[in-house]
Design brief:
The complex is a heterodimer of chains A (about 290) and B (about 120). Chain A is α+β, with helices and mostly antiparallel strands and about 290 residues long. Chain A has 2 domains: about 130 residues, no CATH class; about 120 residues, Beta-Lactamase. Chain A has 13 helices and 9 strands. Chain A is globular. By secondary structure, chain B is an all-alpha fold. Chain B has 2 domains: about 60 residues, Orthogonal Bundle (434 Repressor (Amino-terminal Domain)); about 35 residues, no CATH class. Chain B starts with 6 loop residues before the first helix and ends with a helix. The complex binds zinc ion (ZN). The site of zinc ion (ZN) has 5 residues of chain A, from helix 3 and helix 5. Chain A: InterPro entries: IrrE_HExxH, Rad_response_metalloprotease.
């Protein structure tokens, strides 16, 4: 199955900028890079929640303001990188100006349906986690939630943004699910898991499968708020249906004030179709055949 | 929503006019701006849309304002002045709006100082 990502170019633009700057180590410092470009970067006061970021222009002078109320460096870096996306991406002058000059404010996260917002988010992910630095880090990061935590610490990015980038870059069959209460808010599947036959793809806005650790976890609101973290096992069928009953790993962590839960589904060791067939015929040869 | 032409549609013509006024060919401007020679022709035919970063570098290379290249003013060195804000401005809450206003004032001061000979 070929999936074409309409926003992939935004990630590429970001990666080329990072490469062009000659940066060879993580983390990327978006505030420093912006300032190096002559763009003012200012923190919004903590009590001022409002928008996650703003890009302000007066002719050739630019400033970025970013929200600090989450008290999360990863979130701040993402907000600043997102605004840099509006600055560096071709065509964003139309989004920002739309007839009047001034500033552009961005709502946080991945929920916006706006094309320009989606592009700026992709830019931010590519900027903070460029493939030429992220791939080698990923090889050493381990697996599951622990890998995502390691990478988030290395890149100074939020668990949420890192988890999404992880599914885009890993070669393993992995899925991440962001849920709130009993509902899947959104989910991302790696290429490898998309290529597994006979499973149903997870869908956003669907109910969480009931007999899963995540479902039980979300019934206790303090789990989410206090960032409780658990590593459990689950079954491929519980999450993805199909006919294979295979044990998989399910790591779950509450994302605190963000109010959502991150689930990482991995260790998905699906036998390839030929082996499966072989097993099937082997089983049949072992099974006594009774004639009726 | 504003029905006026988007800035990126005005830009190709503004770029060509400013370049010709400064007596530069496309290759000369590209060199001055540190861009690929083909970039200027792509900008002028509208096949490539500029980013703010591109605009800023081109405005600097041509000694015109970014506002001119965006079609916000009619003269090469003019500034659009204290503009009304962007499409989301109305939806900003009070404190964000205040902060945006303060930043604009600060940037305006700096832009005007740079504009002085
Ligand atoms: Zn934005």
């Amino acid at each position: 199955m070929i999936t074409t990502d309409p926003y992939a170019f935004a990630t590429l633009v970001a990666e080329q900028i990072v490469k062009g700057l000659g940066i060879v180590t993580l983390p990327i410092d978006p505030k420093g890079i912006a300032r190096g470009r002559g763009i003012d970067v200012v923190a919004k006061p903590m009590e001022n929640e409002g928008v996650s970021g703003m890009l302000v222009r007066y002719d050739s002078e630019f400033a970025i303001a970013y929200a600090t109320h989450h008290q999360n460096e990863g979130f701040e870096n993402f907000s600043v990188a997102h605004e840099l996306g509006h600055y560096f991406l071709p065509g964003h002058v139309d989004a920002v100006i739309a007839g009047d000059t001034g500033s552009h404010a961005s709502r946080a996260g991945y929920s916006s349906g706006d094309k320009y917002e989606a592009e700026a988010d992709r830019f931010a992910a590519g900027f903070l986690m460029p493939r030429h630095l992220f791939f080698p880090a990923l090889e050493k990061a381990g697996s599951g939630l622990a890998a995502i935590e390691n990478l988030a610490a290395l890149c100074k990015t939020s668990l949420h943004a890192t988890a999404i980038r992880y599914t885009q870059c890993t070669r393993d069959p992995v899925a991440i699910v962001i849920s709130r209460g009993g509902i899947i808010d959104h989910c991302f599947m790696s290429e490898a898991i998309k290529n597994v036959d006979g499973i149903n793809w997870l869908r956003k806005r669907e109910g969480l499968p009931r007999n899963t650790t995540t479902s039980a976890f979300n019934k206790v609101p303090t789990n989410v708020l206090h960032g409780v973290r658990i590593e459990e096992t689950s079954n491929l069928q519980h999450w993805f249906g199909g006919r294979r009953s295979i044990e998989i790993s399910e790591d779950v962590v509450g994302l605190g004030r963000y109010g959502k839960t991150l689930t990482v589904l991995y260790d998905i060791d699906v036998p390839d179709p030929e082996d499966e067939e072989g097993e099937q015929s082997l089983m049949e040869s072992w099974t006594p055949h009774f004639r009726r | 929503m504003n029905l006026s032409t988007p800035p990126s549609a005005v830009f190709p013509d503004r770029l060509r006019r400013a370049r010709e006024y400064r007596g530069l060919n496309q290759a000369e401007l590209a060199q001055k701006a540190g861009m690929q020679p083909s970039a200027i022709s792509h900008f002028e035919t509208g096949t490539r849309k500029p980013s703010f970063d591109n605009l800023r570098i081109l405005a600097d290379s041509l000694d015109v304002t970014t506002d001119y290249l965006l079609g916000r003013v009619e003269e090469f060195k003019a500034l659009a002045g204290a503009d009304r804000l962007h499409r989301h401005y109305e939806s900003l809450d009070g404190s964000d709006r205040k902060m945006a206003d303060e930043l604009i004032t600060m940037l305006a001061k700096r832009a005007e100082e740079k504009g002085k000979p």
